[in-house]
Specification:
By secondary structure, this protein is of the alpha/beta class. It contains 11 helices and 13 strands. The longest helix is centred in the C-terminal third of the chain and has 20 residues.
């Protein structure tokens, strides 16, 4: 992996081997030093630019124009969301331990502009949202109920621990991904300013980061919630660097797929599962290239069919004669639009 430090004004897609832009907001030199010591099996390159919270919206706009996803290392706090979130429909995902940001009392008092969960729940442009890795006792029940009323998705820490690959479908279509380092347990990330005894293990945090990098639509991935500069222990800087490394590896290995594209129809296998209930059936689509799975969901009084990311477990559930919960969830969501 090769990082090239450039001014933000030179961000460009003209050189094809560049895969992403790493944006360092504030003093993040210790993270960069640890990144420089990591090796990659690939030969891709990453632009690296410095920024401030005030300049970040312009940097993100340049990345979007160049068609390069941005990995934003925010340090302790997220910049104000209203400064860069779009005024158009979007999808988002959040990895965090609960409904609070875990940052300072001052930031909590600032309201939803520092909290991705509250911001998305109040934003009419948020069409889809997934919250992963939370612990139920750290989640405001009113916010969780509101999330489910909007047919947004959630996945508890315990479910991730049972099968971490189930994170991938929830991240696949996210345009903006927010990664709160408070989601890590204290024993694996001891310099968190608001650490919890339970949370993600370091290995799980890196695996989820790679799934985030594999998102088909990722425009910007924000990492925040860690101390900056000399406040951080060396092992914490190393872990943040490894999380960024896995994000970049996911981006570099990503293959954009669209089963609706008839030009590549031979790359997908349609698997129709009959449920034996009044002729009901569910259509699954499996990529022979990446082994990703989708399922077809009727929408708009069944006049429209939408493809929804899923896992092989959903297919196996249907093969056993049961309707997958994920299929039911999206069926209800689309029929209630």
């Amino acid at each position: 992996m090769y990082f090239e430090q450039i001014p933000s004004g030179k961000i460009s897609s003209h050189i094809p081997e560049y895969k992403a832009v790493l944006v360092n907001v504030g003093n993040q030199k210790h993270i960069v030093e640890n990144l420089s010591r990591l090796y990659s099996p690939g030969h891709y390159k990453i632009y690296m630019v410095g920024s401030t919270p005030a300049r970040l919206p312009k940097v993100l706009a340049r990345c979007r124009e160049a068609g390069l996803p941005a990995v934003v290392n925010c340090g302790k706090d997220l910049p104000r969301l209203a400064s860069f979130m779009p005024g158009e429909p979007y999808s988002a995902a959040l990895i965090s331990p609960g409904s609070a940001t875990g940052t300072s009392a001052q930031d909590l008092a600032a309201g939803p502009d520092r909290n991705p969960l509250e911001y998305v729940l109040s934003d009419p442009f948020a069409l889809h949202f997934s919250h992963l890795g939370f612990q139920s006792y750290l989640y405001d029940p009113d916010l969780l109920e509101k999330l489910r009323e909007k047919y947004f998705e959630d996945m508890r820490l315990g479910l991730i621990r049972e099968d971490i690959s189930l994170c991938e479908p929830l991240l696949r279509n996210a345009r903006f991904i927010f990664y709160d380092l408070h989601a890590l347990r204290y024993s694996d990330y001891p310099c968190s300013p608001a650490a919890n005894p339970n949370g993600l293990y370091a290995e799980e945090a890196c695996s989820i980061a790679r799934y985030a990098g594999l998102s088909q639509k990722a425009e910007a991935i924000f990492i925040y919630g860690g101390p900056e500069g000399e406040e951080a222990l060396t092992v914490c800087n190393k872990l943040v660097a490894e999380i960024i490394w896995h994000l970049c590896e996911g981006i570099a290995a990503n293959i954009t797929e669209n089963p609706d594209n008839k030009s590549f129809e031979e790359s997908y296998h349609r698997k129709i599962v009959g449920l034996g209930q009044e002729g009901q059936e569910i259509v699954f689509i499996n990529s022979s290239i990446t082994d990703r799975w989708w399922m077809e969901i009727p929408a708009g009084n069944a006049c429209e069919i939408r493809l929804v990311p899923c896992s092989i477990k959903d297919y196996q559930t249907a093969c056993s004669g049961d309707i997958p919960l994920r299929w039911l969830f999206f069926y209800q969501k689309y029929m209630n639009l």
